[in-house]
Amino acid sequence: MDRRSLLAATAAGCSLSLSGCVREIRSAVNRDRLEPLSVTITTQPADGDRQSIRLSREIAANLEAVGIDVHVELRSPQELRRQVLVNHDFDLVVDRHPGGADPDFLYEALYSRYAEESGWQNPFGVTNIAIDDLLERQRRVADADRREVVEQLATLVAREQPFVPICRPDEVRLVRTSRFDGWRAEDITTRLGYLGLEPVGEGGALRGAIMDAAPSQNVNPLSAPYRGPDPVVDLVYDPLAIEPPGDDEVVAWLAEDWTWDGGEGDGDGDGNDGGNGNDSGDSDDSETGTGTLEVTLREHAFHDGEPVTADDVRFTYEFLADTSMGSSDVPAPSPRYRGRTSVVQSIDVLDERTLEFVVDGTEAIAERALVAPILPRHVWESRSDPPNVPGVRLAQGTTEALVATNFPPIGSGPYQYADHVDRQHLTLERYADHFTTREDVNLPAPTAESFRAQIDPRSTSAIALIRDGDADVTISPLETYVLDDLEAEGDVERIESETAAFYHLGFNVRRAPFGDPYFRQAVAGVIDEAWLAETVFHGHADPIATPLSPEWTPSSLAFDDENEDPVVPFHGSDGDLDVEAARAAFEDAGYHYDGDALVVRQ
Predict the structure, then answer these.
(1) Region labeled Disordered — which residues (predicted)?
(2) Cα gap 472→465, rounded to integer Å
(3) 329 torsion bin: left (phi>0), alpha (psi -120 to 50), beta (else)
(4) Distance in angstroms (rounded) separating the CA atoms of residues 592 and 121
(5) How would DSSP label each residue in 380-412?
């Protein structure tokens, strides 16, 4: 074991967090009264996410059985994300985490530096030196060693339980082939799923049913409360590169090509017309340091006719790092894309279409930083001031850029804004001058004249729109309770796709007793992931003990044939909690009971 790994292991064993130590010392000095523990689980109502509320109620019942008073608090999707991701005002949260195909998404989710930032940047408030060390290492080691480091990281995260991964649901959608054909299951979760379709007959407008009203209320690509994985808004904005689902390599998009010069060995990026920049030459087993990506842009223009320049790209990355543009006492980073772009140390504009990115990490990690949406400087530069949003409490450091509804949006993507009606629809029209429509570019292009995302809150009514011929695709994945009766017929096809998203119980470790990993482990022991996947999701989900995608999950963290959590087994079987064993786990963690109530120091 090398010195760095030894330090990581030592720190892990101590579960050491500097800020956590300070809080615990203060607690020991200032608090000595034992009071019954009362917690709140924040989640969505049934009309927002039926599965989240059912998970919350099952978890709440088991926590109450072990002596914890639980209140389930229902919030709309936007309110929940604002409360949890922006204001960090929660005890426990049950929600769908966007996850990531590459393990590097954990850098965004858990790195200590982001504990006080907003968005999916460490909403749990984790501060753990050992986790940070492994997060940094997996960005620096050559491919030959990365899997070993990721396994160490996943094992440590599973032991620390900053959140409890519950299950990864099946993603199923319906499409009609009578007006557009060529639907691709592997792409339908991204912008690529709505490009390159084959019009049948006159084709015309592409019509989608979506169960989230967010696109009709806000098209700000930086908004944490309104944006999850969102192919609709992604059609309006172009990144330098895209990540096709199931592909380990990024593909050049707005970037024409790039070249890499770094610690893994020199290599030429060949991103022309749908290639990728991943030709790094032979790698060794050592850690890499700083490298450079020289990126060349395609000739292109934003929807308002202004050219996309290297200056817009540099502005975008600087703006993502600090949306206050240096006007605030502390930086106000974007709550989205922060983890990806944090490897970018600086950007130099070489000419109108060429930039040099100085990055800290391997070539593969550097290329993943190219997926952020490119913003027009002439639109976003004026949004660096603090906002005024009546009736909404916002975290300190929030800027107008992070809360603007952004109507009309000005991007450079394959589709441009046409109109919208709140809670009814967002309609886009084809951007005829998009670079994908050029004969010398081999990328999927927009073929529909327009794209209408019609808001429909329920799976059953969205299915009816498809079957009645009033929609061509269910943009949102259908809820699992309808899947057993969902059959393809005629020109209606069922499409199943993989997802990186997973359901989880998250702890706000900024608050006692959730900062204690032994308490979190005891809570995890009352959750039967396999039973919840079978009952709440009607068997259309896989129980998980790690948030990593299946191809990155170590065998030691995979559920076995008995469907038992390999790290924190459920105290009971088939959903029936062994209350005595679960209470003993809390006592073993150092907590006490006053009668039937679990008590903690107040």
Answers:
(1) 259-290
(2) 8
(3) alpha
(4) 34
(5) HGGG-SPP--TT----TT--HHHH---SSP---
Strand-pairing partners, residue 35, are 600
Is 449 in contact with 429 (CB distance < 8 Å)?
Answer: yes
Q: Please tell me the pTM assigned to this model.
A: 0.89
DSSP, collapsed to helix, strand or coil, labels residue 73 as strand
What single-letter DSSP state applies at residue 550?
G
Answer whether 363's CB lies under 8 Å from 146's CB: no
Nearest alpha carbon to residue 505 among 532, 467, 487, 480: 532
**Tokens 């130099």 label which residue?**
348
Q: Where does residue 497 fall: left (phi above 0), alpha (psi -120 to 50 degrees), or beta otherwise?
A: beta
Q: Is residue 410 a contact partner of residue 379, using CB atoms and an 8 Å limit?
A: yes
Residue 436's CB is within 10 A of a number of other CB atoms, namely 20
Identify the H or E element spanning 244.
none
Q: Report the amino acid identity of residue 564.
A: E
Q: For tokens 């029209």, what's the residue?
A: 429
Place of tokens 């010392």: 25
- 3-state helix, strand, coil split of the chain in percent (to 5) is 30, 25, 45
The pLDDT tens digits for 140-194 are 998 889 999 999 999 999 999 999 999 999 999 999 999 999 999 999 999 999 9
Domains of the chain (ranges, CATH numbers) = 3-169+501-601 (3.10.105), 171-219+226-232+409-497 (3.40.190.10), 241-383 (3.90.76.10)
Copy the structure tokens of residue 375: 């913003």
The CB-side HSE value for 399 (13 A sphere, CA atoms) comes to: 27
Amino acid at 332: A
What are the CA-CA distances from residue 504 to residues 38, 59, 507, 547 (Å)? 20, 11, 10, 9
Q: Is 417 strand, coil or helix?
A: strand
Q: Which residues pair with 489 in a beta bridge?
A: 492
| Whole-angstrom distance, CA of residue 519 vs CA of residue 22 | 18
428-483 pLDDT, tens digit per residue, is 999 999 999 999 999 999 999 999 999 998 999 999 999 999 999 999 999 999 99
Instruction: Report the DSSP beta bridge partners of residue 415.
Output: 430
Beta-carbon count within 10 A of 528 CB = 27
**Helix (H), strand (E), coil (C) string for 119-177:** CCCCCCCCCCHHHHHHHHHHHHECHHHHHHHHHHHHHHHHHHCCEEEEEEECEEEEEEC
Residues listed for the chain: 602
Selection from 257, 274, 276, 240 nearest residue 374 by Cα = 240
DSSP state of 308: P
